[in-house]
Fold:
Amino acid sequence: MNKATISRCAIGAVALGAFAAVGVLALPTGSADWTPVTYGLTAEPEQIVPDVVTEAQPARVVSTTIDEDGRPVVTVKKATDKASAVKLVKDAQETENAVGVEIDAPVYALGIPTGTDPYRAQQWDFTKIRTADAWQRSTGSGVTVAVIDTGVDATHPDLGANVLRGYDAIANTAGTSTDGNGHGTHVAGTIAAVTGNGVGVSGIAPDVRILPVKVLGANGSGSMADTAEGIVWAADNGAQVINMSLGATTKVSAVSTAITYARSKGVTVVAAAGNSRQQGSPVSYPGADEGVIAVAATDSADKVASYSNAGAYVDVAAPGSGIISTYPTALGNQYVSMNGTSMASPHVAAVAALLKGYRSSLTPDQIETALEKSATDLGTAGFDNDFGNGRIDAAAALATITAPTTAPTTAPTTAPTTAPTTTAPTTAPTTSAPTSAPTKAPTTAPTTAPTKAPTTAPTTAPTKAPTTAPSPSPTVVKVKPVITANVTGREVVYGTTTTTTFTVKANGKAWPAKPVQICVTEGAAAEQCTNANTTSAGTVQVKRTAKASYQLVLKAVATTTSEATTSAPVTYKVRAAVTVVRTAKAKLAVTLTGAVGQPTEIQQKVGGTWTTVGKYTASATPVKVTVTGLVAGQTYRVVVPAGATVLGATSAPIVA
Structure:
């Protein structure tokens, strides 16, 4: 299978003709009581396909179908020209049992190395989230956590004993995991480094087993289609918690469907919130997907990290700066310090595993509630976009859970130690390890259960029963509508009329003539909403002339019989367009379609370097300008730099 990988900066793929199948996956039988996310089935193929499709910028068409056993099947095909891409989309829409068609998106690891120093030994995060106290109730025994990442070094001396055989979604092979990047190994060590062995670092959930799933390459990036594949594989192969320390700025609904499927099997899904605070905190997926616990990062002073995304989708925060953990031996250091929401996310996944190990019947929603209710409130009182519901506290989260009826499995007889006191590895930190780990594992069940049941009934009874039973209050069961869109987002040329069709259903049926709000956020402006009603078919069509990049959502208004709900955002990015034509010797005609006032540069190629030789500002759009005074025979181009709300454009080179 020729499955294209995705680099940290761009998709890397070799074109094989107009289009070539690059991945089809069918996985073990799924649960029958889940509902897939539907998307892109009724859209015009041209609305889904990017404006530019070439060998250098291929389109990877992702389709999702449901097989007869209820499993999501993800198919990826690549096109190297627009006509082929349109045909692939149309064919996918017409495929039997199709639930979604869309364009793939790149996804990236969200960790930031702090440098080359591998000797940082102090795990300040353990004290901050009260890991030692949490171990008195649970060490995560019997729980499997999938690390969907760059792979995991299964031979690492401080991690290998806790690593299961995994899956490579890029190569579609199962077996012993490797990690050519280090990101996944670092994440896995935070969760379940071997603890109490007198070596290296400790893991937050030391008795957890790690299920490695590789979806990112050695360069730390990959595709959302592979991510969807990895989620389904993990759910079907014993994962009870999934950690995804990765992110993409484009929502891919195949991933949303995979997450819904995993949750239907009782899997708690945790993901990083993103590291782009300095770029305005663009929404990061899968962190912002429904049902995912999105994690922001904090530092040792309980301040939000300077890189950590802010947003309404952030659920909780966790330590993410200066986190020491395991690293592949083959890459030169067994331990390194890293920063990122990638490092924060496994803290939450590990505590989720402690909760699951303490009480195996907990559902994903119950685990999320325990984490949020027990979190330490930071920043603005109550929920805020920086910390969500607060920074997690492992011991407090466990305290919210009723003790199991039988004693939880105790920790290994060799308890976690506070420092590598004897034979530390040659690359181990030279300073002492954290002093917060317990020196002795719990040997008995929690002592909070009652010691003796009552032996007699109450000595008195009511002398007379009430003459009438109280009248029960009627309970109104409210339906929660489900809103889908025909497109997840597009990049369009300035002035294009976009059409977005939302479909609203309740209990699987169209939701006609119901009140909704169409809400638009353009650039950095505040959200603007207008009232509307669904059609008799339960749809709402929104047409808009694209003059700035914007995000569109549809909100179903709460009524006496229904709950309020909001669609996933549809994001339109608006780009300027520029063409250049030689009309005479040393004379060019430039046509610019873009925002009024957007600057335009005339550049000449001199000695292999592009140099700006002239500038002008568009006074209208579209605007046509004749450029003269050029040097005949020289190569020129026109560049429109990106503005705040309109992406830039560069013309093809032309000889004057």
Remarks:
- The chain has ten helices and 38 strands.
- Confidence is low (pLDDT under 50) at residues 1-32, 112-120, 406-475.
